[in-house]
Amino acid sequence: MLRLLVLLLLAHADGSLFLPPLEGKQGPEIALISVQGASSPVEGYKPAAEAIQKASPFKVWVGIPQYLFDLPELQFAAKVDDILQQMEKAGMKADHKVIMGHSLGAVGCQGYIAGKGQGKMDALVLTGAAVLRKYRNSTKFPPTLTLDGDLDGLLRITRQAEAYFHQVIKVGGADAPGMDRPVVLLEGVDHWSFSSGDRPSNVKKNDIQAEVTVEEGHAMIGEVIADYMSSLFGSDAEKAAAGAKIVEAVKKTGELVEPILAAMHLEGYHNLNPPCNSDYPTNPTCQYAKYPDKSLLPPAGPPKPMPPADCTCGSDWVANTAANMVAGFEKTPASQTKLVTKDAFHDVSDVRPFHLPHIFEPQPGTACSDPATCVINATTVSMPIYDWKDDFDVGLWPITASEFRTKFKSREALQQAAGLQDVNYTATDELNTEICKSINQAAYDWALKTASSKARDRFLKHGQPYVFVEDKKSGFGITGPTWIHDALSFTPSQDKKTVAVQSHYFPLKNKNLGDVSFVQTVGYHYCKLLSPARAMEWIYVDGLKEFYGTRDDQIQIVV
């Protein structure tokens, strides 16, 4: 066993390298440690390192340690110490130390900074990576730059939009005094733009094509990192000038992620602000009507911890767009009826208590006397479903909701409440295969319209557009309605040029204008909904990978 280990170690001889400063550079001496990504050869990081040295006015030493099997989780601290010692033996007298990691190397850097490396580095640079959620509120980090490309297929732009929200917007904006974790995205840059040479298999499989050349990408990267170091370690004049450039880069990034954040807010994305609990309201802006809290068993107690005061009340998309589309008041005598809807996030399987949509005004058993002046106050219940793989927080998999499991009052119930007579349940709900479909089409249309013109044009040229097909009615299984687990489906066409999206729906006929016991389920229309944020994520990331990725069978394009 020992012999085998020795042979393996010899087969992976240390290929660590360092670059001494360029001649003619002035100012402080900087030690920059560049940590490789998984299966990413150290030699590939040399051109980007040289671009940083060229762009910086300082004497920058760059050390690129090679880890065993090119996996930076192994020997992390020891290799950092070793490359620093090598540079010191070569004459380095560093005034400041900066550690920079790419991809998995950036994950390792964060663990190092929070552990054995705490207090040893003056700055941290994350490339093709983000500050991990578990470190979002850590006080152990030095000033930290997050630098990525908008076409990174492994650390997706949606994850960087989330980072921007927390690291920039929530601290007061790009030029706020307390903003010590700037987020900068470079247009046209992909995950591999931070390195060079042949892509590792995982990168090749998942990245999106860069729209700048390798050399252009390295120059862009070098300039931002050089400016960041100048903003921290330069003279007062250098700090001011370089800091202003970083602020402008952060503001430009804000423009890039603005459509994505708008979509996330419509969804009620759980990693911006956590969801509220309407049973135990903590956000006074929600103005929840008290849900009928009938329960077969003693109700569950309050959540621990309680949601913060800025928790997300529910999905604005469901409340302000989808609910009105379900009602279908247009082209009826109730076209002037006003529907006011509050959405709440709950598990749709809850029975402690039951969480069901409800019409509060007019009261159950009554209806408006005049549809033209009618105001209906109602609630909906939504359960956003998130991919469990995002718990790893690596940015590779979609982070937005894969579907909404949403319970609405039925079109029949809403139109009856508005005062319409002889509403035909068969036509409004039972055999209506268009309601959920039309809402999902609207979410996709909104995302296409709201996306940046560059992202939209790229997707329309190279992406896989969604097409929406008729809703499929769910039935009953052993445990009840199958709708809960009948997932929103995404089916590529045979030539993969389009993806068909199909919702499942489950309708229930109304009775006595809803004035029945809670054990009678009447007047509902359940939908599997496409989140506008998932549609946006498809346009910016996942919908590009089939025809605009970096596999060997995909054409490399520079636009």
TrEMBL record:
Keywords: Signal. It comes from the Eukaryota. Residues 1-18 form the signal peptide. InterPro entries: AB_hydrolase_fold. Gene3D superfamilies: alpha/beta hydrolase. This is Alpha/beta hydrolase fold-5 domain-containing protein. It comes from Symbiodinium pilosum (Dinoflagellate).
